Batch of 2 targets.
Target 1
Amino acid sequence: MGPSGLRRLCIMSFMMRRVLILAALCTALRADDEFLRALYDSLHDSPMQRKFRELRPMPFGVVFLPWKGMTEAELREQFRTMKKLGFHNLKQTMPSAEWPEERIMEIALEEGVIPFWYADAGWERVTPELLDKLGLPRGTPIEKLRTDPKMLAYQKEILRAQIGKRSGRSFLAEDEGFRHTPDPLFRAHDVEPFKKWLRSRYATPLEINDAWNLFEVGITPAPFRTWQQVDQYVEALAKEENSLRGYGREYGRMVDVLRYKADGRTATVRMVTREANAANPHAPTRTGGEMGLFLPFAYRAIRMEDLAETQKEVGSFYPSIHFVWHFGEVGYEVARPIYMQVSFAADLFKGGWAGAWESTGGPQQLSGSKGWNYEEGSTTPGFTVSAGTITQLFLSYLAGGFKGCGVWTWNPRRAGIEAGEYALLDRTGKPAARAIRAGSIAQAAQRLRDELWQTRKEPYVGVLVHWENDAVWAAMSVRNRDHFRHYPMQSRVGVSRALINGNVPWEYVTMDDLRAGLAPRYKVIYLAGQIALTEELISMLTKYVQDGGRVVMDSPGGAYDDRGVIFRTAAGSSFERLFGAELADLQYSNNVPRVLGGRKLDGFITEVRPTTADVLERFQSGEPAAVEHRLGKGSAVLLAWDASHACFRPGREDMEARLRRHALGPLTLPYACEGAVVYRTSAPGADHYYFINDGEERAVSLSTPAYRYLEASDPVTGEILPLGSPIRLEAYSGRWVRMRKK
C-alpha cells in the first residue's frame, strides 16, 4: 500500500471511531429528545446566535423607494402607513437625486420604523451590566424590555449610530489574487491560487495522482512525483482545450477546480462579513441571497453550506425569493417550491438565524433578465401576486423555520426595469390587498415571536444534500449533456414534492450534519440522484441502519465515488453489506422500456443483483425494481428507477405515492389532511400548522392522531376554531392554525 492509500485508511479508521462515539452520544441524548433538538440548536451556536435567541427578532421589513418630487410630509406618511399595517422596519432604502439615503433612514427612525433589515437584532446585547446602567432590574424578561421607555431610548441611539457607519470594504473584494468565475473551467488567473490550494489540500503529489485518477487508462498526464511537476501541469491546464480528449475528460480534477473556486468564494465572503462586523459589531451581517436556490451550485463553484457557516459568528443566512428571477428552473411553479427554497436555506443553517431577507412583494411579468437558458429566455415569467400568494409566501417562511422577512418592495419603481412590479402597494400608491394581508401575518408573527423562536420542525425524513455528489454531476456536464448539472437539484425537488404532497414531515440534511451525529433525528434518510457515494457516507449510513434507521436510495445512485471512479458494489463491498445487493449495471428505460404500476418509465434504471436483500417489487421485465435489506434494527432500500427525478414535474401522483410507500415502509404519519398541503412546527406550548391551498376554495379536515390539543385558533384573524371541525381555506392561498397543547 502506498502513502496515499495508507493515509486514506487512517482517515477512514478515524472517521469510523468518530461515528461510533457520536452514535453513542446521540443514543443517550435521544432518550428524552426524539428529534435531537439540543444537538440541532448547537450546530451553529455562537455568541451572536445566542444574542439572537435572547432577543428573538421577527423583522417583517419593506424596501422604500423615493420618487421624483417626494416631500418630507409624504415620506413620513408612508412610514406611518407601514406601521399601521404591521411593518416596523425597512428592509432597505435607496437614494435619489433629491433624497440622500441617510436622510430617509433618519426620518424612518424618527417615525418609529427601524431603518435596517435586521430590526431590533441590531440592539446592543442586553447584559446585566446594561440593565444596571439603565437602572432596570437584572433578570427583567425581554418581553418587558421591548416596551420599556429607558431601553427603547437607549437602543434607538444604538441604531441611530449605525446609520452613518460603513464597513469601509469594497464589495466582495477578491483575496490574494483569487477571482471567482461561476463554472468549472480553469483560467490563467486561477493558476497561482490553485497551486496554493493544492498544497493545502494534499500532503504530497502522490495523493493528487489518486485524486485525479492518473493511474487509470486514458487519463493524462503521467503520475506526478514532485510538486514541480504538479506546478508545470497546472500552468498547462489553463491552456488546455475544453475538448473530449482535453479538459473535460477526467472528473476528479474538475471536482478539485470547483472546490478550489468554492473555497475561494467562501473565504471572500468570510473576509467581507468579518470586516463589516468589526466596523459595526452590533449589526448582523447576511449572506446567501441573490442566487436562486434551484441553481446548480456545484457547477457554479459555490458551496452554500459553507456560505451559511460564514454567518455563524456574525449574522444570518438567507435566500432571495423572486418569482421571475428564481423559479424558472422549476417551470415557474410557486406553491410548493417556496417551501423547498425556505427549507434549503434554513436547513443549511440549523441552529442559526435564517430569514427571507429578499422576498417578492407584488406582481411581476416583464423583468427577471434573460434567464439562464433558451427555455427561460423565450418564455414570459408571469405571476399573479395576490393576498393569497403573499399568504403562501409568508406562511411557508414560518413553516420552514425563517424568523423574519424583507419585502422588495413597499412601493414600485416608477421608471426603468421593474417599474410597476414587485410592490406591496399598487400602481396608484394605495395598499393592495396583498399589503394588508402581509401586514396582518407580520403582526401575528411579531406578537408570537417568543413562541415562534421556540418552534422546530420534527422531520420524519431527511433528504441528503451532498455537494461532492453534485460536483460529480457538474463535472460530467462539462463535456457531456448540460442538463446533468441540474439533475441532483431536480431529484431533490422531486422527492421534496412527493413528501410535501403526502404531508410527510421532512428536511434537508448535509454531510456535516451527519458527521455531527444528527442522523438519528430522522426515521428515514433519502438519497436522491446520488450518483456519487463515498466510503465515509456508507459507513455513517450503515451505523444509522444498524441502530434502527431506514436508508432509501434511487437510481442512478452509487454509480461512482466522489472522484468519478466506479464505486465498489460487488459482494463483500461496503455497499453490498449495507444494501444486500450488487449494483451490476446502469441502464435506461428507452429502447428497452421498463413499466412499473402500469406506467412506462423514462429514466435511469439500475440493474440490481440481490444477495441478501428481499425483492419488494419488479418491473414488467421481471427485473427487481425495489429491494430491501434488513440490517441490525433497520433496513436499506434500493429503488432501481429514478424515483425522485421522475417526480420533478408536477402531475405524477402515482409515482409520488410509490416513492412515499417505499420511503416510509411501515411508518405511520403523525398527522394527515386530504385536500391541502400542511406543514407543522412544534413549540413546548403549542404546535403551528400552516395550510397551503393550491386550488379553489375548500374546507379540509386535519387529523392529528399523534397529538392532543386544548384549543385551535387562527393567529392572523384571532378566530377560535372548534377542535375537529373543518377548516375553511380560501382559493390559492393558505391559513395558519395554532394548536395549544394539553
Target 2
Amino acid sequence: MLFFFLKNSSMIKIKLATLLDTTVLAQLGRVTWEESHGQYIDDKNNLLEYLDKNFSVSKTKQEIQNPKKFFYIIYADEIPAGYAKIIVNENQENIASNNNCHLERIFIQKEFIPLKIGQQLLFFIQERAKELKLDTIWLSVYVKNKRAIRFYEKNEFENVGSLNFKVNGVPYENIVFSKGL
C-alpha cells in the first residue's frame, strides 16, 4: 500500500512493511525508540538490553509475520523517516471494545519531526483502521512525554486510564489514550 503527500517540497510515502523491510524496520525501531524514550531510562545498560531484545532483526521478523500486526514505514524523499506498528483486536482493560486497533508504536526520527509527518502517519493509521472495520484506536504514552501527550490530545484522543510499561522489569507509568473511529 502506498500513500503519497507533498510536504515542504518533500515526497512522502507510506508503505506496508514486508519481510524485505525487516532490517530497515529493526533499525528504525531501535533509533526512534532510543530518541524518544532514552532520556527517561536512568540505567543505560538497561536501555541497551531493552533495545537489543525488542529491536533485533529476528524479533522484528517474527512480529512482521504475525497476521494481527501491521507495520507501516513512512519515507521522506525515499529515506525511511519513521514507522507505525498496529495490533488488531488486542485486549486492554481500559478499552471496552474488542474491535480495536492498538497503535503500539508511532515514531519519527528526530531529524524528520519538523516535517510534521507524524501527523500524516497518524491520519493514515486511523484511515487504515477504519478500512479494517475497527471502531476504536488506542495507545499508551509515558506520563513524562509531554510532547506526545499534547500531540494525542490535539488529535482528540481521550485519557481513559493508565498502565505500567516495563523496561526489563522496571515499571514506567503510561497514560492510555483512546479514540472512537
